[in-house]
Amino acid sequence: MDDQSSCVPPGFRFHPTDEELVGYYLRKKVASQKIDLDVIRDIDLYRIEPWDLIERCRIGYEEQTEWYFFSHKDKKYPTGTRTNRATMEGFWKATGRDKAVYEKRRLIGMRKTLVFYKGRAPNGQKTDWIMHEYRLESEENGPPQARNLIPSSKNDS
């Protein structure tokens, strides 16, 4: 199943809400529980360029403008907290504020928006690639160490 599309029924569409992405898919992935329809792939985001997601994360045979995948966060330094978001050809840069994701008025996660820049900071060239990175949150315990669910899309504007 490496570079082939996921096996789904004809006409299948995958358009989950933020609440479904965090409350069902990400929560089950972190808990190593079975996901009913396994359509979200595990990839190493830092060894792949955004334009390669099209083939690697395809769901079914429909033309897609969004791709979904699980990826571990990479740290810039082994003992640090800073995240490494660089690829061979560029980097993902956070933009705007994180958005809270709620399930029945209870905070369950956060969504961070990132934009891909070709080249190296601070002189990178902004592209149309946008990614939403999701993480689990808990109002009581703070954020757990978890995998991120990251849908990526190419902005058509």
From TrEMBL:
Keywords recorded for this protein, A-Z: DNA-binding, Nucleus, Transcription, Transcription regulation
Family matches, as Pfam families: NAM (PF02365)
A GO MF label: DNA binding
GO biological process: regulation of DNA-templated transcription
A GO term from the CC aspect: nucleus
InterPro entries named among the record's database cross-references: NAC-dom (IPR003441), NAC_dom_sf (IPR036093)
Transmembrane region(s): none
NAC domain mapped to chain residues: 8-157
Domain of life: Eukaryota
Compartments reported by the entry: Nucleus
Annotated protein name in UniProt: NAC domain-containing protein
Lineage per the UniProt record: Eukaryota, Viridiplantae, Streptophyta, Embryophyta, Tracheophyta
